[in-house]
Specification:
three-stranded antiparallel β-sheet; single chain; about 350 residues; about 20% strand; about 40% helix; Arc Repressor Mutant, subunit A; 13 helices; alpha+beta
Length: about 350
């Protein structure tokens, strides 16, 4: 089981970083920024349970017009940790799109690379867990009329259409895998309906922490603050706990975040029956919005940036560039396009092609 139970004490609420320092090949993989599709970030598709979850769940929006129903297979619903596979595939496809490459909903990947990039153990447990994750992802079926990429999907489909082990070692350990994404997910990718996730997402121990971060990332985004009622948050999380137990679980996360600041991007606090997310980068965002940071880039510069930093997500580089200037208190450059291209060139010279 991938999920690890958090015990009280002085232990960090984050999992250890299993990424080996100095492993250049794995570091290249990490340069493909983790990304999740907005549709599954906004709706409770994945189970938070660490035991087989055989509940059928249905989610409807406030209008009653849009719905999503998730049905498990005999193996149970796909879990929030199984979602790592989806995030990895989306990240690789988006990296290829940013390089101008032709993409397909069939992704071939190395099992070891996926395990390392998502901070999973790369021993026998990791491979066994990955095999189980693929089965649950293929077995979990969704019926919905929620639109992705301007396409309304009305039939019943699996999260992934198929998973195939292309090559194994002599002892039966998978080496290469082919994953065929569903049209629903692939439509979202092609429409760029994805969001970059903080790398520490893969280090969050508790399934509820991961789900809460996804919701904050989708709804708070770059805003300074976002609030949601406990009952609405519970619905969005898909939690089967009682309302009292859910409040206790959220309270534990709030207490740990106050002690460790471990939740990525957003701090979280509890105000009566409201959960409040505060953007940790709010001060940086304010600095970027100040006159000295109000920098506009020309539309053509992004294509030039792709040439000087091939393989990189240019919009991620732009955010990194703006934060670097804000952190250093730098004034707006006289020629923003030239300054941005210089930054991209230095990143590529330093870190290479992801």
């Amino acid at each position: 089981m991938v999920c690890e139970i958090t015990k009280d004490g002085d232990r960090s609420p984050l999992l250890p970083d299993r990424q080996e320092q100095g492993d250049f090949f794995v570091c290249d993989i990490f340069d493909a920024a983790p990304k999740g599709d907005m549709a599954s970030m906004a709706h409770p598709i994945f189970s938070l349970s660490t035991k087989p979850d055989h509940r059928v769940r249905r989610y409807e929006d406030g209008t009653g017009r849009n719905y999503l129903e998730v049905k498990p297979s005999s193996d149970g619903l796909a879990t929030i940790h199984d979602r790592d596979v989806l995030i990895y595939c989306i990240s690789q496809i988006m990296a290829a799109i940013n390089k101008g490459q032709k993409v397909s909903k069939i992704v071939r990947l190395k099992a070891f690379d996926l395990l390392k990039a998502t901070n999973r153990p790369s021993d026998g447990r990791g491979y066994s867990g990955l095999r189980s994750a693929l089965a649950r992802l293929q077995g979990t079926q969704i019926e919905t009329n929620i639109v992705t990429g301007d396409v309304e999907q009305l039939d019943i489909f699996s999260i992934i259409d198929r998973a195939r082990i292309v090559r194994e070692t002599r002892d039966g350990r998978m080496q290469e895998i082919e994953v065929q994404l569903s049209d629903w997910v692939f439509n979202a990718i092609q429409a760029h309906e994805v969001l970059t996730l903080h790398r520490n997402y893969f280090r969050l121990r508790k399934p509820l922490e991961r789900r809460i971060y996804e919701i904050a990332r989708k709804h708070c985004g770059s805003k300074k603050e976002w609030k949601i009622s406990l009952s609405a948050l519970q619905d969005k999380c898909g939690s089967a706990s009682t309302s009292r137990e859910f409040k206790r679980l959220v309270g534990n996360i709030v207490a740990q975040d106050e002690a460790y600041n471990h939740m990525p991007d957003y701090s979280v606090r509890l105000d009566e029956n409201m959960v409040v997310f505060v953007n940790r980068h709010a001060e940086k965002s304010q600095a970027l919005a100040a006159p000295s940071g109000a920098i506009r880039l020309s539309p053509d510069v992004y294509q030039e940036a792709r040439k000087v930093a091939p393989g990189w997500d240019i919009y991620t580089l732009e955010q990194e560039w703006r934060e670097w200037m804000a952190d250093g208190g730098l004034d707006a450059p006289a020629n923003p396009d030239r300054a941005f291209l210089g930054f991209c060139r230095k990143i590529f010279e330093k870190r290479g092609n992801p």
